[in-house]
Amino acid sequence: MTNVRQLREKQPENEKITINLGFVDLGRIDLLVQEGFYSNRSDLIRTAIRNQLDTHTSVVSQTLERHTMELGLRDYSVTDLESLRDAGEMLHVKVVGLARIDADVTPELALQTIGSITVLGALQASADIKKALADRIK
């Protein structure tokens, strides 16, 4: 078993957020959970958020087109960034969702190839990458 090694940390499938609610709203949520409409508070809140986002689908699509943003999960590997560097091109990351920069990307390579990062959602990268690109992250 000494030759077994973990290739990649397990990445979280979602992002935790904190919200503040008034006592009355919280009580109403608890009532719906108690009555069996939802399994717990988080279930109701997730459902409400998805329903609200569904009502704005066309606005989100139009905005993505206008800003040429990618929707969903976008990974950036050493190979991707080396190809850009070799072509003399600069990457401008624009993602709605999750952008991940692989752990084996060096800060030097990131600085050579990433001109800006705009992520509406979450950016997963090493602390060294985030520090190196701090002035390019919007």
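Second entry:
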Amino acid sequence: MFTEAMGQVPAGVGVVTVKDGRDDLGTTVATLLSVSLEPPLVLVSLDSSSYLTEVLLRNDRWAASLLADGQQAIASRFATPGRPSARLLLASTPHHRGDHSEALVIDGGVTALEVETTRVVPAGDHTLFIGQVLGVAYVDVSKAPLVRLRGRYRPVPGIKPTPEA
């Protein structure tokens, strides 16, 4: 019942990535939120039993690419269990390595952030990573965000891209 209740709340979809030695890892998230403007802090919630959580507990710097409507395939690739390296998942997708985190940043979304974890909070079966934003790779107000609602990626009625100034 709780899952169905929370499924009624639309959430922006992103991909969190981290460089781990010679490998790159990532996962799809729908729980990335702004916590503070000064200093700029964000929070991401990850399954405590995931390998990405284990890696983020030893690597403080990571990236979050917030996807645009039309990037559903990228979100699905990173949400698939047993997925290969993030580099393989992004082989045909424009991306770059972040200046601050060295994590892979997906291009073509609505925004991308590079973050350094400042606090880790166990929360039930998840772990919350609160981090300070080190840099904003890009912001594209001309695109509508990718949103997950009721277990599916959906367009958001009434949300239109903002024309660039």
